[in-house]
């Protein structure tokens, strides 16, 4: 005989947000309460390959259960998100991905292997979709099922998510919403003499080749240092210097602001394309680029909005906003997806 279902408050789902450098974990109860109200991070170890990364996720899983006083027996499902491209079932692209450079990641069944390790169902979304789902539901509340939105999540790469009528658009192969790899027009964005940027995926002139941390390191900062001779960042290794750009932008540094103007313009061009494809109710920006001072966040959002070309009718209805809870959005969004799956009996 099948045991009677537990009351919603007696079971939980776990959300695991896997990133290029860190994992973030959360717990969501069956009746919809998050038991974690702060970022809980641990090293992701993805550069060491799948075996090390899975062990890091297992450690994050056990740690978040211990922190929240939950037992493994209460867990009905786990939500996993990671950077893409990956299939709808969580198989990493066979041609590799920005955050998964180790050769063993190519074609790796990330979701399936984690499910074997944990012994509970694992629901997968890419990180952009997870953050987009969370932003959409938190912004629209009860109206979420009848609204649409797009999200650009700026981190090591540029993730994204498209929500239509409250549902994540995943596509036939599960790779819809890879907004970072949409080609954008560069006229008016690049400065005189600035080379056409190249993305980690091999494309030229896609959105991620400008609007991402890797773009700052590979494409933007080397050029702008040549235009600001004697700048303090020139004395640092390029990777370290790239991570200092946002802090300097918060302080009004001209070189740093030039870089972020280009990033905002690239996102605006991307949103302009999407405005003519799905005409969403809202445009969200999240990720490291807006994990900054309030003044800088609002400046950047205003820059993006100014660069998004909307028709008058769209300007009257469209909202622009930051993804809520920023660095917790991915884990929370994928936990919501896991809870949805449990409640739907999937």
TrEMBL record:
Specify one Pfam family.
Answer: ROK
Q: Which InterPro entries match?
A: ATPase_NBD, ROK, ROK_cs
SUPFAM superfamilies documented for this protein: Actin-like ATPase domain
- UniProt record similarity statement: Belongs to the ROK (NagC/XylR) family.
Indicate what this protein is called per its UniProt record: ROK family protein
């Amino acid at each position: 005989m099948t045991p009677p279902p537990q009351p919603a408050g007696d079971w939980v789902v776990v959300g695991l947000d896997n990133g290029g450098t860190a994992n973030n974990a959360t717990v969501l109860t069956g009746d919809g309460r998050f038991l974690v109200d702060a970022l809980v991070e641990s090293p992701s170890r993805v550069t060491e390959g799948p075996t090390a990364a899975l062990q890091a996720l297992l450690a994050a899983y056990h740690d978040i259960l211990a922190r929240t006083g939950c037992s493994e027996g209460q867990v009905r499902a786990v939500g996993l998100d990671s950077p893409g491209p990956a299939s709808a079932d969580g198989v990493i692209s066979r041609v590799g991905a920005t955050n998964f450079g180790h050769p063993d990641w190519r074609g790796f069944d990330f979701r399936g292997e984690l499910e074997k390790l944990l012994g509970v169902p694992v629901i997968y979304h890419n990180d952009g979709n997870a953050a987009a789902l969370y932003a959409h539901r938190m912004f629209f509340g009860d109206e979420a099922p009848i609204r649409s939105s797009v999200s650009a999540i700026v981190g090591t790469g540029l993730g994204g998510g498209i929500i239509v009528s409250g549902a994540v658009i995943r596509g036939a192969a599960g790779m819809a919403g890879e907004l970072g790899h949409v080609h954008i027009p560069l006229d008016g964005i690049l400065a005189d003499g600035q080379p056409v940027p190249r993305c980690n995926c091999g494309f030229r002139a896609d959105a991620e080749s400008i609007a991402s941390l890797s773009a700052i390191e590979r494409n933007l900062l080397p050029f702008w240092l040549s235009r600001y001779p004697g700048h303090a960042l020139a004395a640092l290794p390029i990777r370290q210097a790239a991570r200092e750009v946002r802090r300097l932008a918060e302080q009004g540094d001209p070189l740093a602001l030039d870089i972020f103007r280009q990033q905002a313009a690239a996102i605006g061009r991307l949103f302009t394309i999407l405005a003519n494809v799905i005409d969403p109710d809202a445009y969200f920006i999240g990720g490291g680029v807006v994990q900054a001072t309030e003044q800088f966040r609002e400046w950047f959002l205003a820059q993006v909005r100014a660069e998004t070309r909307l028709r008058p009718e769209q300007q009257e209805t469209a909202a622009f906003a930051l993804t809520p809870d920023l660095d917790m959005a991915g884990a929370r969004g994928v936990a919501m997806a896991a809870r949805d799956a449990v409640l739907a009996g999937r």
